[in-house]
Amino acid sequence: MAFGLREFSLRAGDGSPSLDSSNGEELMHVQPSVAVALGNRSVESPGTLYITSRKLIWLSDVDVAKGYAVDFLSITLHAVSRDPQTYSSPCIYTQIEVVEDEEDEDVTESTGVLDLSKIREMRLVPSDSTQLNTLFDVFCECAEPNPEPVEGDTILLLSFNSVFASLTIYMFVLLYVFSEEEEDNGHNWVFSADQMVIGGGGEEDGEWPISQSPTSVIGHSNGDESIAQPMLELQISDERFDDAEEMVHESETRDH
Amino acid sequence: MLFFSYFKDLVGQEVTVELKNDLEIRGTLHSVDQYLNIKLENTHVVDQDKFPHMLSVRNCFIRGSVVRYVQLPPDGVDVDLLHDAARREARGG
């Protein structure tokens, strides 16, 4: 997955762009006779706009090596622009998220070569301007199934949609909440009952206090006591947590 | 889901969306989805110098992940209710 605008010239035999169908990418809409204007540069045409489920692709109709692509993940805003005073032709105006680089305002003048990854605005000008609303709607439809891939959201989804034991759900939600507050401890979290067992017995961390209580191991998370307290409060003797028995066994056999 | 529900109730009201690139857009909230993607109508850009091309835009779709703030109409917000609801949501209850 690439960030920002980039060159794209992979074409299939019929001139259409090669898609990553193994990743589920499908062609959603084709709009012929579309010109493209990157940033403040002059418009380039003629070309064809291909809208896939993952990205926008513009391919030149006359130069097979010329084409641009941008993932919907990078398109932060899109709109229909119709004011002739702002731009000569009605177009779809888009903003593209770029990696911030403070010194870089001139996308061409610094090196003489266009740096596509710094393009922040792109206009797509169809020769048929009655198609603008259709294009806008297609952009909306394709943007929606391309949300940010964030781990935290996954945990939250699990907690609301799964049929796990209610205690597990409660713990997952709490883990999510605390992972938001504790920046460095995300990697220490356990996500399954099995992990809690392993994490409890095998560490060489000498700070782990010995305890006969089956609840304490889970309550101590690699030395970070501030997290331990709320975790302890979660412990209830639920027979679905087999590790309770294993914990007792491990405590008995530990040499300290 | 709290803010998704909350914004759905705000549809039709005027809001100002501030993006992470500092662009501020005022407009009528047309719709919102579960990722908090926002569609605005009758948009006006607050600071027109930075993005002059936005002058001619009247309707736009804003990706949820790029929103920094959404400024809400003061009489459209019950702060205490929202506060309680947010606290409940964080607790998972």
Name the pair of protein chains with the most residues at their interface, and give those residue counts.
A-B, 32 and 29 residues
Number of helices, counting only DSSP H or I runs of 4 residues or more of chain B: 2
Give a quick account of the main beta sheet of chain B: strands, pairing sense, barrel closure.
Answer: 5 strands, antiparallel
The pLDDT mean of chain B sits at 89
Number of helices of chain A: 7
Quaternary arrangement of the chains shown? Answer: heterodimer
What portion of residues of chain B is helical? 10-25%
Distance between the termini of chain B: 12 Å
Rounded Rg of chain B = 14 Å
Q: What is the H/E order of chain A?
A: EEEEEEEEEHHHHHHH
Protein name (chain A): Chloride conductance regulatory protein ICln
Organism (chain A): Eruca vesicaria subsp. sativa
Pfam families (chain A): Voldacs
Biased composition (Polar residues) (chain A): 210-219
Write up this protein.
The complex is a heterodimer of chains A (256) and B (93). Chain A is an alpha+beta fold and 256 residues long. Chain A is built from seven helices and nine strands, in the order βββββββββααααααα. Chain A has helices spanning 132-143, 151-161, 166-181, 193-201, 216-219, 225-234, 243-253, and strands spanning 6-7, 27-31, 34-38, 47-52, 55-60, 67-71, 75-81, 91-96, 121-126. In chain A, the strands form two sheets. In chain A, strands 1-6-5-4-2 form a five-stranded antiparallel β-sheet, covered by helices on one side. In chain A, α4 runs parallel beside α7. The mean pLDDT of chain B is 89. The longest helix of chain B is centred in the last third of the chain and has 13 residues, at 79-91. Chain B is α+β, with helices and mostly antiparallel strands. A five-stranded antiparallel β-sheet of chain B has the order 4-3-2-1-5. Helix content of chain B is 24%, strand content 37%. The radius of gyration of chain B is 14 Å and the shape is elongated. In chain B, a hairpin with a 4-residue loop joins β1 and β2 (24-32). Chain B has helices at 2-10, 79-91, and strands spanning 14-19, 24-32, 38-45, 57-62, 67-71. At the A-B interface, β7, α1 and α3 of A face β4 of B. Chain B: Belongs to the snRNP Sm proteins family. Chain B: Keywords: mRNA processing, mRNA splicing, Nucleus, Ribonucleoprotein, RNA-binding, Spliceosome. Chain B: It is found in: Nucleus. Chain B: Residues 2-76 form the Sm domain. Chain B: Its main location: nucleus.
